[in-house]
Amino acid sequence: MKHLEIDARLNDWDSFSGSRRSRRRNPWQAIAEFLHKTLVITELEVRKLRHDPTDLIVRAVQPVLWLLIFGQVFTRIRGIPTNGLPYLDFMAAGILAQSVLFVSIFSGGMSLIWERDLGLAQKFLVSPTPRASIVLGKGLASGVRCLSQVFVIYTLSFVLGVQLNFGAIAMLGVLLIVFLGAACFSIFSIIVACIVKSREGFNGMGQLMTMPLFFASNAIYPIEIMPPWLQVVSHINPLTYEVDALRGVMLSNGTSLYGYGFDAFILLSVLIVLTFVGGRLYRKVGI
After folding, report:
1. Burial of 77: CB neighbours in 10 Å, binned 0-12, 13-18, 19+
2. For 227-269, what is each residue's pLDDT tens digit?
3. What phi and psi, each to the nearest 5 degrees, are found at residue 251?
4. CA torsion through residues 188, 192, 195, 199, sign
5. In which element (H, E) is residue 101 found?
6. What is the pLDDT of residues 115-154, one digit of tens each?
7. Using CA atoms, how far apart are residues 44 and 147, in angstroms rounded to an integer?
8. Among 14, 26, 66, 111, which is 20 to 30 Å from 200 by CA?
9. Could you give the 3-state DSSP secondary structure of residue 164?
10. 3-state class of 251 per DSSP?
């Protein structure tokens, strides 16, 4: 059924683009067509959650363990400067970003490898859909998938006594940053999957991607206590800006070092660059 559904969607795309070949498209028509196809890919990817929703539950276990065990232990250590925040409050935003990182890394690239093995990726390659549209659609779907992690972390943080900001604007800000961060890291994993091409190789690369990104960020300790070389790495790590933005809007007494607008701009810029690179490499999936 899934093959028939994708074939039908691709036929619709052929008709949609074929009706425009006889006339010259202006830039707005091209943008509209790109967005249309991106949203179609997003909808197809999100629909997979209905077939295996247990994946979201399994992915929620890891951040729960971090907050319940690691957070409770390090709360008793007074040597970590947190700018006046209780350490558990400081850590909550970082664990939300970590959860988004792990879910997006392993869902994006692994999904592409499965599609290649099943022959679905080849169907996308022979369609008139822009490669960047396919990659971006998968990234946006990962953003939707990771929104459930917000509910999990918020619920557990509230139970543990973290001072959360439940304002409507703050909640929308958290959802936007989680969405952008998940899309960035999902497309990054798709780029890696285009190069690695095997499930076994990607599993190893997944750990190699997630752990350095996580520990070379401000998720569980501030940047100023890092050695100088690691501070440089942290400042070019997109996860640092995701954590900084979350810490500023998620906590009622939290602050952002760089500013929410700057953090969102960095994540959006990274998303655009990775989409372009991923679109260029996606054609290698069929080789």
Report:
1. exposed
2. 999 999 999 999 999 999 999 999 988 888 999 999 999 999 9
3. -100, 140
4. negative
5. helix 87-118
6. 787 777 777 777 777 888 889 999 999 888 888 889 889 9
7. 17
8. 66
9. strand
10. strand
Q: Quick one: how far is CA 20 from the chain centroid? A: 34
Question: Tell me, what amino acid is at 92?
Answer: A
- Give the mean pLDDT of 90-109: 88
Nearest to 133 by CA among 174, 177, 190: 190
Token digits of residue 115? 């599609």
- The amino acid occupying position 169 is I
Q: Give tens-digit pLDDT for 199-216.
A: 777 777 877 888 889 989
User: Tokens at residue 285, please?
Assistant: 């999936």
- pLDDT score of 249: 95
Buried b (16+ CB within 10 A) or exposed e, 194-219: bebbeeeebeebbeebbeebbbbbbb
CA 253/CA 184 separation, integer angstroms? 28
Residues 57-64: contacts with CB under 8 Å, at least 24 apart: 59/99, 59/102, 59/103, 59/149, 60/99, 60/148, 60/149, 60/152, 62/99, 62/102, 63/95, 63/96, 63/98, 63/99, 63/149, 63/152, 63/153, 63/156, 64/152, 64/156
Residue 53 has what pLDDT?
Answer: 64
